[in-house]
Amino acid sequence: MKRVVITGMGCITPLGHDIASFEENLFAGRTGIREMTDPPPGLHFARTAAVQDFSQAELLNAAQRQIADRTSAFAIASARQAVAQSGIVAAYPSESIAIVFGCSTGGRTTEDQESEKLFTRGGRIHPLTVPRVMASAGASLVSMENGITGPAFTVTTACASATHAIGLAFQMVRSGAVHAALTGAHEAPLSYVFLKGWDGLHVVSPTACRPFAADRDGMTLAEGAAVFAIESLDAAQARGAEVLAELVGFGMSSDAHHITQPTPAGPAAAMLRAIEDAHATPADIGYINAHGTGTDVNDRVEAEAIYRVFGERARTLPISSTKGLHGHAIGASGAMELLATVLAFRRNLLPTNAGLTENSPTDPALHLDHILLQNEPATPTLALSNSFAFGGLNAVLAMKRYDP
Questions:
Q1: Which candidate in 14, 57, 284, 288 could, as Cys together with 280 as Cys, close a disulfide (CB 3.0–4.6 Å)?
Q2: What is the pLDDT of residue 391?
Q3: Is 209 a catalytic residue?
Q4: Catalytic residue, candidates 164, 186, 291, 326
Q5: CATH 3.40.47.10 residue ranges in the chain?
Q6: Is a pLDDT exceeding 90 seen at residue 357?
Q7: Is 291 a catalytic residue?
């Protein structure tokens, strides 16, 4: 089994259009959650975490503009950054590079536009509607732009899509099935129908996402993408690539319980499997980037799962959910959260759990006493990044600081 490292990263997020701006805003505690400019009528919430000032016309060529929905454009732009930093496309035969992306919702922007034309104006549907709405279009377009002919596919497991995708890519590189991979996730779900659908579930915050807070009142929907270039440590060292972090474990499980109501057993099993896969023990974990959506049920279940894995140490383990800053981008959230964790290791600074204040303290019933109220200096060697989805689909990544 090969050791697997990250050598390139890219992002388009509510916190910025590149790694530098994402990092600056993450550690400055500047939230990307804002008032919607033109919300659908009748919503019980008015805030989302949308990507600001993103121009497909400036970033995509004519052929890409014809086919790319907003979600695919996020994937293309993020992948360009990861490719440029890592150099993997030039370093390896095209057939030995994989593309493994997560995307849960597909081309919602196209669906809205074409549905409005069809149902309100009797217009004709654009002939490229089907490829535009495919969840896998982002992987296809990135493969075309880079001439990558290895395995390319998209994972769709709701809010765990990103972490499942990155974990599968990690396993492919570790086993030697491919030499390198572009992996991560992209999502642009802030459409009329999607917003109304989530409103109907009564889990979206009318104020703003405050994970693990005593007065939390729901999640905040978001969009964006993050992409990583990964390869074996030996190959990265041989070609002189900069190593940003090391992926060391991946765990998956299914609750087999309920389509929307989670149970602690599944998330706990996924965390334990990731730790075991990393050849570690719970005592080795120094930080958890939690799924932490800010809903009452999710935060309670995740807290119980963490307690099952770590016991009394759960009270002192540093934990934060960064969704209070970048929102919940459904299938892309796990990629943004892994990005935040990598940056935390590189800066020796753990990111705050935004939304917690003296007036909005941590929920004492959760028994997690070290939810980060502010950025905290720390030098952990091993961390978990949790993603738990509707349908009871759980995925956890374990990563560590790379020390030459």
A1: 284
A2: 97
A3: no
A4: 291
A5: 4-238, 250-400
A6: no
A7: yes
